[in-house]
Every structure is written in structure tokens, then in C-alpha cells.
Amino acid sequence: MSIPKVCGIETEYGIHVMHGDPNPIAASSVLINAYAQEIARQQVGWDFEDESPGNDARGFALEGSLPPQVETHLLNTVLTDGARFYVDHAHPEFSTPECLDAMECLRYDRAGELVLIRSMEAADRVVTDGRRFVVYKNNSDGKGNSYGCHENYLMDRAAPFSRIVEGVTPHFVTRQVFTGAGKVGSETTAFDGEPVDFQLTQRAEFFEERVGLETTLKRPIVNTRDEPHADPHRYRRLHVIVGDANLAEVATFLKVGTTALVLAMIEDDVTIPRSLGLADPVRAMHEVSRDRTLRRPLLMEDGSTATALAVQWELYTAARAYADSNGLACMGDAGVGEEVLRRWEAVLDGLEGDPMSLARQLDWVAKLQLLEAYRERQGCGWDDQRLAAIDLQYHDLRPERSLFRRLDTERLVDDAAVERAVVEPPRGTRAWFRGRCLSKWPASVVTANWDSLVFDLGTDPLRRVPMMDPLRGTADHVDELLERSASPAELLDRLSS
């Protein structure tokens, strides 16, 4: 049986500096430091001891491929909710803690947005040279540079990577119909000079390979980074780089939930009646993104054709049958799994009938509706720069400036739950132990990462506590232990015994 799909989202936010030095690395550092000092009032650094982004799931790296760089000199901090908040290349990045299901992952992704909003406010209070920082939850700067929203899923090491590639590629190419954040125009040569007025996704045109290790150049649809942040003999972490950064909650929920379910079927070697192999997945990815009619036929490996919607219906049908026969324990919460299936079907129905009926659920539809309304009022073409400005303002996180916040989009998590997620870790994963230790003994935790904590007990040497199983260290496992321990030394003694 498939293992629980522990999941998380890493979001690189766009940043703009008004009235000062535009250096994005310096700006990102100011932003994160302001939050750590002014709001979190603690700064526990990241432990890079176990970082190995160059490991390739294929067992080798293709000639010319380069592993991602680990920038240990840039600002990193770990928060009491178990999340990581840091400077990644030239962006502030928020990585959610490990979550047990798609709804929890959505809640912590929303908490990340709130952390960034409060970071901007904190930076405004501490910066005295007139600079102001604006953060966008988007994926490209309009000048040919793209930054990612990455997902991570816990998988059984026993599942062959080749089977994962074969099974997940059709989903990654076609899920754009509900995960896309929408985008005016294009920034690359992916469309061979063909004019593009509007795309479903911000990221699709930046992908050039089917499979590969890189994340910033020659981006692959399936990333091969083999860095499990867990027991490598039992687990792998599928690092997914093809997604857009969503603001619409239903889109985020479906992005994570449907992918988790497809991966569970791959682990259990479920056979889908129709072969969904694409003749050219990279080309198909570009074609899906620029086709807002959702009717463009994609060439399949067997010579037939199918639309992106048809592929998604095949996956949904297989997932529904899988859930009926196997249950949904792999989804963390069976109720959440059923909600994923219900909304998956409803969104596909809506896309098939009238895509614009989903403006409350999907980013690309909500944005397109805004843009079309503006074009109708102003009588302007798609090359009008005001449309690009509207596109960008949709993603502006400042509450008073965000176009997204003015829309009546459907909410799945309430504000109180998001507020709690800013400071409290998920109860059902090892993030609980990490977060509670940071809350209870911040001065004694020297560094932290996904699979360990390092304590300073005031005596040599430092003590490392490994956390190699994402499903241990939960509230059920450690709450009593944490309550009975009056100090970190006592906690470690109890753990040792």
C-alpha cells in the first residue's frame, strides 16, 4: 500500500525595492531579518550538514547538468511553526513545514503569505533610508526570469523512479488547466515567434527538458533531485518544480491533492486503461499553457490525440476507482481525500462546460476575467502595457494594493486557522517536535533542518537529535515527553533512554 503523502510547498516570492538600492538579495535579507527580529523575536539558523542537492535519482547526472547551489552564506531562519524562511538566490522563500494532507498544506501556504505581509510591515518600521519593499506571489518578472513554487511529496523508496517519471508526466503537463496562475504574453522563445496574448500558466514556457536535475536552467518537467530529508533507505522526496504560485485556495488545494493521489497510484502500480504517454511532453506543456479554449489536441505516444482535459478525466476516473478499492489512507485524512476527488471532478466539469464559471476557484480564470473586463472598457489590445501592470498587481501581497484580494474567491481555510499556522506547527508530522522545541527552548536550539535539531546544553559537545521519519515526532508521539521535560537536557536524557 502507498505510504502517506506527507507534503509541503516552497514559494520563492518576487521582490521589488522602491526608492533605493534595487539589489534583491540585500532586500530579501532585510525583509527576513526584520521579521525574525521584530515579530518572531528569535533567529535559529539552518543546519546545512545534510544538504545534498546534487544527488540524482537516476544514479548519475547527465553530461552538462549541474546540481543546484547551496548558498550557506545567505540569511536562513526556522520558525516556531516548523517552517523555513530564508533568502534563496535573489528571493525571499517560505517553505512550509511538513504537512499531512493537502488541506493542511494549503493552510500553511496561506500562513506563508501572512508571514511575507508582516515582513513588509516590519521592514517599513525598521528601514530608515526611505526604501520600501513590495512582495509578489508570482513566478516571473516579465523580463525572462522565472522563480519557482516547488512542491514536495514523501514517496516509498521501493517505487522505481522510471515508473514515477512515466506516471506523473501526463499529470504535470495537463494539470495546468486548474493550477495555472495566468499570464499576459510570453517571455521566451518557446513558441517559435507565434504571438501569445494570454497563457494559463506563468511557468510552462520556461521548461525545456522532460527529466533532469537542474531547477533554474534547462528546467525539467520531472526533477531528479534525490535528497529525501529522511531515511534514504525507506523514502524518497519527489521535488516538483512545474507548479505556479497560486493565490486561489481551490487551485492550491487541487494542485497538491491531485498530485498526491496520482503519486499514490504510481506507488501501488495502478494500471490506467488508456496509455497517457505524450509524444513530446515539453511541447505539450507549452501547447496546454497557451490554449485557453482547452480544446487543442495533444499528440500521444501511440499516435492518437487527446486534449489536456481528456487526460485529466482519465486520471480522475482512475483515481476514483483507486479510492473505491484501496481507500484514501495515503491522503493523510480520508475526508480530505474525498474532498480532493469531489473538487477535481467539479472543476473538470466546469472547465468542460464554461471555464469562466470557475472565476471563484481558479487563478487563471479570475485573472482572465479581470483582463477581459478591462480590455472591453478601454478598447485596448493585448499588447497594451496596462494589462501587464494588472497582471502584476493581481499578485501584489500588500492588502491595500492586491487585485486578488478584491475578488470574491472561494475560501477553504478561515483566517483564525491561518493565524494559528503562523506560530503553531502541524500536529501530525515531525514538524511538531521541531516547532515545539523552538517555542519552548529557543536559546538552546543552535541550528535546525528538516531531519534534525542541534542543541547546546551548555557543555561540550553539541547534541544532535535526528528526525529521519517525517511521521514521527508528532503531537501524539512527543507531547507527553515535552510536557514532562523541564529543560532540553532532560528532554535529551529521556530520548536517550
Q: CATH architecture of the largest domain, please?
A: 2-Layer Sandwich
Distance between the termini: 33 Å
Number of strands: 18
Oligomer: single chain
What characterizes the major β-sheet? 6 strands, antiparallel
Shape: globular
Main structural class: alpha+beta
Helix content: 25-40%
CATH class of the largest domain: Alpha Beta
| Total count of domains | 2
Q: Write the CATH fold name of the largest domain.
A: Creatine Kinase, Chain A, domain 2
Approximate strand percentage: 15-25%
Based on the model shown, name its key terms.
497 residues, alpha+beta, Creatine Kinase, Chain A, domain 2, 2 domains, six-stranded antiparallel beta sheet, four-stranded mixed beta sheet, 18 strands, 15% strand, globular
Provide structural commentary:
- The chain is globular.
- It contains 14 helices and 18 strands.
- The model has no long low-confidence stretch (mean pLDDT 94).
- A hairpin with a 5-residue loop joins strand 14 and strand 15.
- It has a six-stranded antiparallel β-sheet. A four-stranded mixed β-sheet has the order 3-16-17-18, covered by helices on one side.
- The chain has two domains: 411 residues, Creatine Kinase, Chain A, domain 2 (2-Layer Sandwich), CATH 3.30.590; 70 residues, no CATH class.
- Helix 3 runs antiparallel to helix 5.
- The two termini are 33 Å apart.
